[in-house]
Write a structure and sequence with these properties.
By secondary structure, the chain is of the alpha+beta class. It is built from two helices and seven strands. A hairpin with a 7-residue loop joins β3 (about 30-35) and β4 (about 45-50). The chain starts with a strand and ends in a 12-residue tail after the last helix. Its main location: membrane.
């Protein structure tokens, strides 16, 4: 499976509200997994992002959560899911928070192609002749009169 975005983020636990640093991976299938390290071998959990995110707040918009000790509020992200749960994250910088928000919103609205297209288009220089050939009636069509 192809990786869309990966990086270290702080995650607030849902029960004890403690912050823990995890490697996050946003996958092409629209899921967000978090792991113990960047090898992405030991998955702690995975959430569905595709068509499941209601809202994402970043930085100063995250009023109901405090950042991890020593971290800026500008790096905060709160991902609200359709069923009501929320995922509180904290990036190292405001730019990282914005980049994660952008990637998550794109993953939320991008459908996955179930399989590759059965054909590929020719290279651009050959495109004009290819279009002409595909729009021309088949040679055998003149053998059959139209009624």
């Amino acid at each position: 499976m192809a990786l869309v975005r990966g990086g270290w983020l702080w995650r607030q636990s849902s029960f004890l509200r403690r912050w823990k640093r995890n490697w996050f991976a946003l996958w092409m299938d629209g899921t967000l997994g978090y792991y113990h390290d960047e090898t992405a071998q030991d998955e702690e959990d995975r959430v569905l992002v595709r068509f499941n995110v209601r809202n994402i707040k970043i930085g100063q918009e995250c009023h109901d959560v405090q950042p991890p000790e020593g971290r800026s509020r500008d790096g905060l992200l709160t991902v609200s899911f359709r069923e009501g749960s929320r995922l509180h994250l904290c990036a190292d910088t405001q730019d990282d928070a914005i980049a994660w928000k952008t990637a998550l919103l794109e993953a939320n609205s991008t459908p996955v192609s179930p399989r590759p297209l059965p054909f590929s288009f020719p290279p651009l220089p050959a495109m004009e002749s290819w279009v002409t050939q595909t729009r021309s009636p088949p040679a055998w069509s003149s053998q059959f009169p139209h009624k």
